[in-house]
Amino acid sequence: MLQGIIKKGKPITVKVPAPQVEKGRVLIKVVFSCISAGTELSELARSKKPLIQRALEQPDKVRKVLDILREEGLTVAYSKVKNKLESGSPIGYSVSGFVVGVGEGVTRFRPGDKVSAAGVGYAHHAEYVSVPENLVIKVPDGVSLEHASTVALGGIAMQGVRRAGLQLGEFGVVFGAGILGLLATQMLVASGVRTAVIDIDQRRLDIAKELGAELIINSNDESCIEGVLNWSDGWGADAVIFTASTSQNEPLSQCFRMTRKKGKVILVGVAGPEIKREDIYSKELDFLISTSYGPGRYDKDYEEKGVDYPYAYVRWTENRNMKEYLRLIQTKRVDLGKLIEKVFPIEEIADAFEVLSTQTPRPLIVLLHYGDSGDQFEVPDLSQQVVHINTSGVGKDVIKVALVGAGEFARSMHLPNLARLSDKYSIYAVMDRSGHQANVTAELYKARYATTNLEQILGDPEVDLVFITTRHDSHANYTLRALEAGKHVFVEKPLAICQEELDKIKNFYERSSGPKPVLLVGFNRRFSKYLAEIKKHTDKRTNPLIIHYRMNAGLIPPDHWVFECGGRIIGEACHIIDTITFLTGSAIESISVESLIPTTDRYSPDDNKVIILKYRDGSVASFQYFSVGNTSFSKEYMEVHFDGKTIVMDDYRCLKGYGIKVNEMKTRTSQKGHYEELLALHKSITGENPSFPIPLWELFQTTEATLLIASS
């Protein structure tokens, strides 16, 4: 399918795999999408700036890169920056079209429905989009798809009007006669509010007058403050809705000065950062922010999980705002006839942005058109879910890898390592739920093709190894499907997030006869040179080991996706158990767990635990996994004690022995074995090592232990 992106300062159309039908989402064949002149032109302007200038304007991001450089090294930092610069940015957040598929749990839509949809990251300028149910609205009879494609802008304008809380007969001012301002003007007029509009563009002011504004003021020609005071009998406006976009401070100051005592100023657009105390203090003004389309915006539970707010307590959500906007179009309270001025086919997206950037006067609304869908309400077929990129051959002795899940960690760690091992691995295919991300990653690493369809990967006889780096809740399912397709599998930890998932994988190996596909879980620590050095000495011990391990994991937000996918013990503490099992080489005999009981809700017992493992060989290990520590302190630390000897490893950067001569290594960055695990995997797949890189019983034991600890 075709999708519009901004890349290296230019809007372009690229061919990417079409999205799949997903749980909780609506798959839409787009007919029109609306370009947001403010947001998207700002993004375009930002992308044109030299890298140094962008860095100076975004010091927080520079600090983040420096932190990555310090913690993970130049290779990872370079990969992350390169991926960001090379990938381009999908754009667009307001579309209309027809439903062609609905995912599990979607109840309000069916194929053939005429709909609008909104949302940054969802409603792109693309032929097909996959949008969460709460961001999709049915288009009422009598509303064209052209008009319905403006739904996101209508929701933004409506939320600004609601924040103003103006009543019948009160004085409302709209500052800025762009598209948001002209939509807000019509909503105020429809509500019986006496409405004034201020701008410096006379053409737009004339349109505002035609749309019902009682007063228009060109602030280039007269004082807008005096004009509003004269109009309101000297009192000032009850509320001002700021819909302009400027970096200057004076326009917002003018809004404060034209507002009555105890009035309101609502920021919908963009204003300069400085506010004068004298403008607002003496009049005790309320300065309010209007957030996008309304309640629910930036709430993952609402937008991604479909959890609606109770109607009685939150009357107007973002979905209900947008639904009401479409009703206003239906009843002709909002007229878009004078506002939509240009329509371009998606193939001419560069021309559309050029018109918005340079034409005088600038068009108010520009749409992109994707062709009529007719009566075709079918999910995109396989030919639309695959984009072929590279036709060059691959050596016979090289393992062909299909990456499943092109997230940041895969792009910054695994793919660079696979590329370094080009004599052993070929990055053959890339699959991701985002067609754009799959396509960019496949192009960057010269893969044969990109796809959004896992079945394409599993059914491709050329694929030797399926490399799974998706979210944790999909690991077991994807692993089992790949194994049953006869593919070798590398899956990032964890292998499974519940016993039922694990049992299915165990059953696969127990019931299958003949050669079995190699399975490796990304327990990379055991492959690091630090663990190899420790293992060399512990294998010569006479007595069991006492091991102490600490993981200072750091605090993450409670709404982080990892908590929905098994949690941090299953998702990360598994590394520790595998490391200890690697050193003991023994089965776990017993597990005891104690959890922190926090006095506040900032911390959770679930990721603050002390665990003791007793092994059958007599070894005992204790480890602490916690989020209450300080992140400036090293993340991982281990002591290994045996036979009067002690080995200490600090954060995979330093190794020191006491009472024993070891190779006392020091490295600038943590060396955790990600590269070395790929070498071990290659040996197992090619038969150089007849065993799996990690014995199956150890993979299963580690997973079962983490499941037990997490549930305790």
Topology:
Blueprint: E1 2-7, E2 10-15, E3 25-35, H1 37-48, H2 51-57, H3 59-72, H4 74-87, E4 89-90, E5 94-102, E6 114-118, E7 128-132, E8 136-138, H5 145-148, H6 151-164, E9 171-175, H7 179-190, E10 194-199, H8 202-210, E11 215-218, H9 224-231, E12 237-242, H10 250-257, E13 259-267, H11 277-280, E14 286-289, H12 300-303, H13 318-330, E15 340-345, H14 349-358, E16 365-369, E17 386-388, E18 399-404, H15 408-420, E19 425-431, H16 435-444, E20 449-451, H17 454-458, E21 465-468, H18 475-484, E22 488-491, H19 499-511, E23 519-521, H20 529-538, E24 546-552, H21 568-584, E25 588-595, E26 609-615, E27 620-626, E28 636-642, E29 645-650, E30 654-658, H22 674-686, H23 696-711
Largest sheet: 7 strands, mixed
Binned strand content: 15-25%
Sheet/helix structural class: alpha/beta
Low-confidence stretches: none
- Intertermini distance: 48 Å
Q: DSSP helix count?
A: 23
Helix content: 25-40%
Shape: elongated
Mean pLDDT: 93
**Total number of beta strands:** 30
Protein described:
With 712 residues, this protein is of the alpha/beta class. Helix content is 34%, strand content 24%. It has 23 helices and 30 strands. The strands form five sheets. Strands 3, 5, 6, 7, 8, 15 and 16 form a seven-stranded mixed beta sheet that branches. β21 (465-468), α18 and β22 (488-491) form a beta-alpha-beta unit. The longest helix is centred in the last third of the chain and has 17 residues, at 568-584. The radius of gyration is 30 Å and the shape is elongated. The two termini are 48 Å apart. The mean pLDDT is 93.
